[in-house]
Amino acid sequence: MSFTAVYQKHGNHYLGWIEEVSGVNTQGDTLAEAKANLRDALAMVLVANRMLSERARPRGRAIREKIRVRV
User: Fold this and answer.
1) Are strands 13-18 and 5-10 parallel, antiparallel or unpaired?
2) What is the C-alpha to C-alpha distance for residues 41 and 31, in angstroms, rounded to an integer?
3) Dihedral through CA 1, CA 33, CA 38, CA 6, nearest 10?
4) Mean pLDDT score of the chain, rounded to an integer?
5) What is the DSSP annotation of the chain?
6) How far is CA 25 from the centre of its chain?
7) How far is the C-alpha of 54 from the C-alpha of 57, rounded, in Å?
8) CA distance 31 to 8
9) Alpha-carbon gap, residue 21 to 5, rounded angstroms
10) For 16, left (φ over 0), alpha (ψ -120 to 50), or beta?
11) What does pLDDT average to in each consecutive run of 10 residues of the chain (71 residues)?
């Protein structure tokens, strides 16, 4: 799975976000730190979204499948 990370220097810090996933953003004192923080933030958001989805699933049968898309 791959995503598009965007980084921008802002003063003495770097900001970073993932274009495809709303809410995944971070910062770092260096570009390397911003990249590491962004990977961690993405992992946390994906885990949280999966947990929320599993909790909200209606009782009964639900169909879950992995999909791939090309943009």
Assistant:
1) antiparallel
2) 15
3) -80
4) 90
5) ----EEEEEETTEEEEEETTSTT-EEEESSHHHHHHHHHHHHHHHHHHHHHHHHHHSPSS-----------
6) 8
7) 5
8) 9
9) 10
10) beta
11) 94 97 96 98 94 75 79 71
- Residue given tokens 């260096």 in the structure block: 30
Residue 34 CB neighbours (<10 A): 23
Among 42, 53, 43, 47, residue whose Cα is nearest residue 17 = 42
Residue 43 one-letter amino acid: A
Residue in the block written with tokens 């810090």:
13
Whether the CB-CB separation of 3 and 17 falls below 8 Å is answered with: no
pTM above 0.85, yes or no: no
